[in-house]
Specification:
448 residues, alpha/beta, Rossmann fold, Ribosomal Protein S5, domain 2, nine-stranded mixed β-sheet, 21 strands
Length: 448
Amino acid sequence: MAKTRTQFVCQNCAASYPKWMGRCENCGEWNTLVEQAPASSGKSVVARSSGKILTPQTMKSIELEQATARLHTGFSDLDMVLGGGILPGGVLLMAGQPGIGKSTLLLQVAAEIGKEQPVLYASGEESASQVKLRAERLGANAQEMLHFVASTSADDIAATIRSGAYKLVVIDSIQTLSLDEITSAPGTVSQITNSSNVVIRAAKESGAAVVLVGHVTKEGSIAGPKVLEHLVDVVLQFEGDRYGGFKVVRAVKNRYGSTSEAAIFEMYEQGLRVVENPSAALLAERQNADGSVVMATLEGTRPLLVEIQALVNPTSFGYPKRTASGFDLNRLTLLIAVLERRTKLNLSDKDIYINVVGGLKLSDPAADLAVCMAIASAAAGRKLDDKLVVFGEVGLGGEIRSVHSAERRVAEAQKLGFTQAIAPKFGQKNSFIKGVSDLRQALIDYLQ
């Protein structure tokens, strides 16, 4: 009998090798090869003509299925992110850092839907008593239609879904599931791919909505093969600081709605709550000092005012330090170079620190002007007026470029009592906006 040899499979791209290697030659990732026993080959597949001819339809002849009501999560903002709620038969993947509140949010959603529909919460990570403790804290232990199972068998969970007894099934998490036919450990590429396929087929057959919890890697991307994100209908990313501050849920992929919406939550002892007025909460403790600038940004389609703080100190070492919290460090380096080249500021011997208050992460290009003005304000020891709000993109020539949804940003600033906005000059007809076309001129005119 031939000796059974193990193989080493890349957890990123599923390429297999006969021996361990530090770097996968297929995808280039390091330390992703895991030893696995080869699957039983079974009988070889012989080419045969046993298929049947399919009967196609024209687009005009296809009848739409009767519209089914979406399941409302109990959070209006989360419903908006999902496109109106959880669609029956849809599969949703929620990913986020450990400890950020994925299980808490989903148990709250399950308890809300469990008031009217039968819901199953399947946990492969926690026991029944552990989940019971969380349910008591969240007030979710009194729902008669909220059921719980502790299982890591994808076959058993799929059979339960296929029974049609539940309208919503929450699986925490997909990395703990395994199939008996596959010999590799839970969390490997083959187990995740095949387990998710079995669960998704069961969801489509029964019409039950399924929510999968996904782990993330140290880089913040969803763990497992990329095919997992392609298989599901909706991918939600749970972002924020797990130790405090605001937490943002946004849709990375959504087959049934927009991917430009965001829901902002805050963690309390009784669970997560939607932040009704995040702008006012973020600015409540602001002190108008040098290096402090209020910026009008967008989270999805929602306008939001955030405070950007800058600290500029003479460096104690030969190489100046640049640190950013909530802002891209490479973009910060670029903006510092623009400031040095297009204005008279000398920052080559200064340590520069940038902080976005509230634990938010800004990817909005309109943050450029606010970051530049915060750095210049801290470096010169001058401050902006209390009632000024700033937004605009900065080009490499020092020019201020226009940004989208300026009207929404202005309306949010006016709502909170601001009187002026430093913004791109071109295309603006609002008297509230003080248009600027050049970074140097903006610093001269508005830094007191």
